[in-house]
Amino acid sequence: MSVRPAVLLAIILAAGMVDVPQAAFGQSLSIGLVGGAAVTDGFRTQTVPVSGNYFIGMRFFSTSKDYIAGASIEMHFTPHWSIEADGMFRELHLTWAAVQPDGALNSVSPAPVVTWEFPVLAKYRFRLGNFRPFSEAGPSFRTAGNLNLYGTNPAHFGFTTGVGVERNLRGLKIAPVVRYTRWTADHVAEAPAPTSNTNQVELLVGFSRASESAGLPRFRAVSLGALVGTNLTGAYSTVASGYTNTRSPIAGASLEVHLPRALSVEVDAIHRPVSAYGEALYAGGLIGRFDNTFETWEFPVLAKYRFPLRIRGLQPFAEAGPSFRLVGSLTDSSEYGVFAGAGIEARLRRIRVAPVIRYTRWGPDRFTVTVSPLRNQLDLLVGVSF
After folding, report:
1. pTM of this prediction?
2. CA 256-260-262 angle, 5° bins
3. How far apart (Å, rounded) are the C-alpha atoms in residues 24 and 125?
């Protein structure tokens, strides 16, 4: 598929929000915790033949099931419909060992892979007495780190469905759910490399405050939106790395809480591929070409101020705050930074369209390396929200 899943998600969110009635913002925002365990193994059991006198192969396998823990945020549109977004930590248990001629394993070594999963799910509740069965479905995104074995790179995109039941106990919602995720194929650069299970089943329990009776704060307005754009600066210093930088599509989702005095607080989840390519000249005139793309996720948390003036219906604004990122295979890069931005917002009936230029200064790399991504980053983004 030529369209990246993150870009497709942004388009779906932007299109879907147009049909949300204005009364939807009278509903409360539920924030909670989610945890549980995987029913399926994180990695497949694989044996790769190896020629040698002492060992005949290398085996990859999962020794135990994975635990899962994280947080959730849910926007209720009607008593039946809502959208939930989760951020869940899951350590994929992976072990490798050498296989002896008699089949025994030697040099058994754990090599866990740290992942974060981000499902974005549309949820529909049924009514059945004191219980509320529900079904849910939507895209899932995943980032991975601690890739100890060369070539290990679990898939970043998938689709999740689930069924569960919700019970309200004195303002606390308890919701056990069984979820199935179908992940795309792993991004394995070179064999032999362990591959994660494409089909994953998880048993989870969510805990959150019930919007109907918990007295959650009612905000003046809560906006959901989508962000799309591109980088204006390259990923790497061309002189230092020898890489030729390429433009990368940037896409994600946003949630904004509007406060008094033209202030608001916004949280974004942005998918950013870091892309570059280059050429190397070898002896004999051979030319080697390489094309590197690393998947990262950024989470800006920003305070926004809209200036009390309008020019032909356009309202300028400024924003600033900390930014965090999951660096994936860029294990040496900083995971935190600060940013500032300026833009103009236009209202098209119930839709807000806001182009913005953002500058991000990332912190120092965790380890000194010869080639690393630029710490100064300039982006052009367009936000669409409702």
Report:
1. 0.64
2. 70
3. 16
